[in-house]
Amino acid sequence: MKSTRREKGMAVFIPAAGLGTRLRPITEIIPKEMFPVGKKPLLEHTIEQCKKAGCKRVIIALAKGELSSRIIKDYFQNGARCGMHIEYVYAPPTGIDKAFRAAKKNLENKPFLFLAGDMYITSTKLIKTLFSEFKKHPEGVLALRKEKETHRFAMAECSTKKKGTVTIKHLVEKPERDKSPSELASVGIMMLPRNFYRYFGTGKKEVQLSATLNAMFKEHPAQGMVTSEKIFDCSNIAEWVAANQYVLKASTAE
C-alpha cells in the first residue's frame, strides 16, 4: 500500500515530558519511553511504525532540564538513526496540555497524529487505518479497544455504531467498571484536527486530555475506531512484560 501525500506530510506528536512518577524508582534511572522492548527502546518501536506508515516528521515534547529528556534526545538526536526527522519542544512535566501548547508552532496548524509515548504498537496497520478513517471523518478519529480494567483508561460513551467504528459523545476518565459508559477505552492513539488547541482554553489550571476532547465532542462528535490489533500500555509493568514476551515470541517464530 503506497502512502498518500497526506500521510507523507503528516506530523506525529509524542508527549514524553512526564516524569513517570507511578513507575518510580525505575523511572529515576530511565524514562518509561525508553524501557526496552526486545532489543530496542519502546519509543524507537513507535517511531519505526510511524515511518512504515509513511510519516516523516516527529515532534517529541520533553521536560526541560530533566535527565529523562537528555536520555531521549541523546539517543534519537535528529532522527537519522530511524530515518525520520525529529524535532524537540520543551514543556513543564505538570500536564499534557502544556506539552500540546509547546508543540503548537511545530505542528503548523495542520491535522496531526497523536501517540502516547508509553504505548507499544505492534502493527503499522493500526496507524494506516487511522489515516484512512480520518479522510472520511476529519473532525477527529480515536483508536479504541475493549478493556476490562476501566480504572486505567478514559472510557468512551458512544452512540451510532457501524462496522468497526462508533461515534464518540463523551469520555469518562478512569471510572470503576460498574460506572463505565462502555467497554471501549481510548488508548492514546488518535488523529486530531488542526484547530484542536482551542479546546484547551486559556486558563492556567492543568487540563486533562480527556476533558479537552470532551470540549471538542460538544461541538462535533468524533469517530472511534475499534481495533483488535495488539497494543501494550507499557506504563503498566504487567503490560510491559507482556510486550517483551510478544516480541520474544515473534522473533523466535521467524
From TrEMBL:
Note one Pfam family from the annotation. Answer: NTP_transferase
Q: Reaction(s) catalyzed by this protein?
A: alpha-D-glucose 1-phosphate + UTP + H(+) = UDP-alpha-D-glucose + diphosphate
Domain (Nucleotidyl transferase) spans: 16-220
The protein's GO terms of the molecular function aspect are:
UTP:glucose-1-phosphate uridylyltransferase activity
What's the name of the protein? Answer: UTP--glucose-1-phosphate uridylyltransferase
Q: Which GO terms describe its biological process?
A: UDP-alpha-D-glucose metabolic process
Tell me if Nucleotidyltransferase is a UniProt keyword of this record.
Answer: yes
Task: Name the UniProt key words of this record, in alphabetical order.
Answer: Nucleotidyltransferase, Transferase
- PANTHER family found in the cross-reference section: UTP--GLUCOSE-1-PHOSPHATE URIDYLYLTRANSFERASE (PTHR43197:SF1)
